């Protein structure tokens, strides 16, 4: 039963990054604008890099491939993007400030979920288990 729950969790945790990564790769302008607004250089290039990372890491979680590594990387990514792009919530209208506060809380919460996934592993229904990289529960 716990392996089925881990699979469901992996599917749910992968959804956002697979979709977001695909969207960044097909239309990077909005992400590039946020990156430039945060004062980082090479905004368009970084938008493509972020999109590729999100897509590949999301697919790794979905398929259960190198989940421990992907989990730690996604946890770090969530914390970094929450702080770099959403923490300064006193920078826009009241609605934008509220949305940024929610995004920071969401990112920190997701970081916890990815740390848990990195600790628990991919479960029996995964590429990692087929490769022998995970001891099935």
Automatic annotation (TrEMBL):
It is a multi-pass membrane protein. GO terms for cellular component: plasma membrane. It is found in: Cell membrane. The keyword Transmembrane applies. Keywords: Cell membrane, Membrane, Transmembrane, Transmembrane helix. The chain crosses the membrane at residues 7-25, 45-62, 69-88, 108-127. InterPro entries: DoxX (IPR032808), DoxX-like_oxidoreductase (IPR051907). Its main location: membrane. This is Putative oxidoreductase. It comes from Rhizobium lentis.
